[in-house]
Specification:
The chain is an alpha+beta fold and about 190 residues long. It has helices at about 10-15, 20-30, 85-90, 110-120, 120-150, 150-160, 165-170, 170-180, 180-190, and strands at about 30-35, 40-45, 50-55, 60-65, 70-75, 80, 95-100, 105-110. The chain has 2 domains: about 10-135, Jelly Rolls (Sandwich), CATH 2.60.120; about 150-190. Helix content is about 50%, strand content about 20%. The strands form 2 sheets. The chain has a 4-stranded antiparallel sheet with strand order 1-8-3-6. A 4-stranded antiparallel sheet has the order 2-7-4-5. The longest helix has 27 residues, at about 120-150.
Length: about 190
């Protein structure tokens, strides 16, 4: 995946049209830049998330830090938004962690600025609703895959949906995401 080639408002416009005024207002407050080293945390469990980020470069993983083993629930790649969503929306401590897998650069917007813009601009609120609906549909489909799919089917779905994951993400995290042991993933990929 390449470095940032799209602005936050352009990415949001992919969901639905935004007026030029809203785009300019959005870009004016999307200024919180962060650079993470490999394995540095963007969010840790118990931390409140105040920013939503656009990933400019790098890769991140989203996981629950369970005592017996971590459970990977997603990845973040360039030109995607990332945040501890329940914490960002509700202001509660995060239940999961977001960690850079290699040097990662991001640009963010503070929750208060984003919510203020949502409340002022119906077209931005509509885009946000559409984006949240698509994300929810994706999560429901993933849950169904995890409940119904055999390991081969889960690997195939991920290859179809996001083939670049296998080049960008260490296989131990992909295995966790797919609900299998790293050895099982390796065996299935090599067979």
């Amino acid at each position: 995946m390449a470095d940032l080639s799209i602005s936050p408002s352009e990415l949001i416009k992919k969901a639905a049209p935004l007026s030029e005024v809203v785009s300019q207002n959005l870009e004016a407050v999307w200024k919180h830049e962060r650079t993470l080293k490999a394995y540095e945390f963007l969010v840790q469990k118990g931390q409140k998330e105040h920013y939503m980020y656009l990933i400019k470069s790098g890769a991140l993983r989203i996981f629950y830090p369970a005592a017996e083993k971590e459970i990977c629930v997603g990845f973040g790649h360039p030109n995607e938004f990332i945040t501890s969503f329940p914490s960002f929306v509700e202001g509660l401590p995060s239940e999961f962690c977001i960690q850079a897998l290699r040097k990662t650069t991001l640009v963010g917007i503070h929750r208060n600025n984003f919510m203020s813009l949502l409340n002022k601009h119906a077209d931005l609120e509509r885009c946000w609703r559409i984006m949240v609906e698509k994300a929810l549909i994706g999560r429901i489909e993933r849950e169904a895959e995890m409940l119904n799919g055999n390991p081969e089917a889960r690997i195939e779905k991920l290859l179809q949906r996001s083939p670049y994951v296998f080049q960008q993400i260490p296989h131990k995290y992909i295995a966790s995401y797919l609900g299998m042991a790293p050895e099982t993933l390796s065996r299935k990929l090599n067979s």
